[in-house]
UniProtKB/TrEMBL annotation:
Species of provenance: Erythrobacter crassostreae
GO MF: DNA binding; sigma factor activity
Residue span(s) of domain RNA polymerase sigma-70 region: 35-99
Protein name per UniProt: Sigma-70 family RNA polymerase sigma factor
Keywords of the record: Sigma factor, Transcription, Transcription regulation
NCBIfam families: sigma70-ECF
Residues in RNA polymerase sigma factor 70 region 4 type domain copies: 134-185
Short name of one Pfam family: Sigma70_r2
Family annotation (InterPro entries): RNA_pol_sigma-70-like, RNA_pol_sigma-70_dom, RNA_pol_sigma70_r2, RNA_pol_sigma70_r4_t2
GO biological process: DNA-templated transcription initiation
Length: 193
């Protein structure tokens, strides 16, 4: 492995961000991509708040209709697309509770309020960005094969067994490489060296 591939979650986030921007520019095909990528998560949020399958489906429909009309309000520099959409879905579901559009079976609006806002605060984004940069700097300081295998295991989701097979080494050797690399990574993160 020459370089670590981009993690699938990063690729998915970038594809969703791109689709949101395209939708704001009037590309109707982007809505289908957004729907496919987010419908399960957003339905779960609506169902958790409303407590009823039909109500959650209605709220989810409201989310996508409103998204189509208001996609230009999404700012990719302020929030990840899924955080913005999750907040949007939460607000749509709570609006249904408040306006009384809900049939029986829904939870009271007071129970929906404690759901955490998925959008991180600006200072938390900055701290997270600094931490991520520090992790990557410390990873770069590691020697091979630890660096590549740690990236594959923790960013790409490869198992130790898969990594051992790919490197043609015993499983115990792979575990040792990663464990020693993680100890060096920890020292680097704690001491800044």
């Amino acid at each position: 492995m020459v370089g670590a591939p981009t993690p699938a979650s990063t690729e998915a986030r970038e594809a969703l961000r791109d689709a949101m921007v395209r939708l704001a520019e009037g590309d109707s095909t982007a809505l289908e991509q957004i729907y496919s990528a987010t419908r399960v998560k957003l339905y779960g949020i609506c169902f958790r708040i409303l407590g009823d399958t039909k109500e959650a489906e209605d709220a989810l429909q409201d989310v996508y209709v409103n998204l189509w009309q208001r996609a230009d309000r999404y700012d990719p520099d302020r929030a990840s697309p899924i955080s913005w959409l999750a907040t949007f879905a939460r607000n749509r579901a709570i609006d249904r509770l408040r306006t009384g559009k809900v049939r029986g079976g829904a939870v009271p609006v007071e129970e929906a309020v404690p759901l955490p806002d998925a959008a991180p605060l600006a200072d938390q984004l900055m701290i997270d960005g600094e931490r991520a940069a520090r992790v990557h700097t410390c990873l770069e300081a590691l020697e091979e094969p630890a660096r590549t295998n740690i990236r594959s295991a923790f960013f790409d989701g490869s198992t130790y067994a898969e990594l051992a097979e790919d490197a043609d080494v015993p499983l115990g050797t792979m575990k040792s490489w990663i464990r020693r690399g993680m100890m060096k990574l920890r020292t680097c993160l704690e001491t800044g060296e």
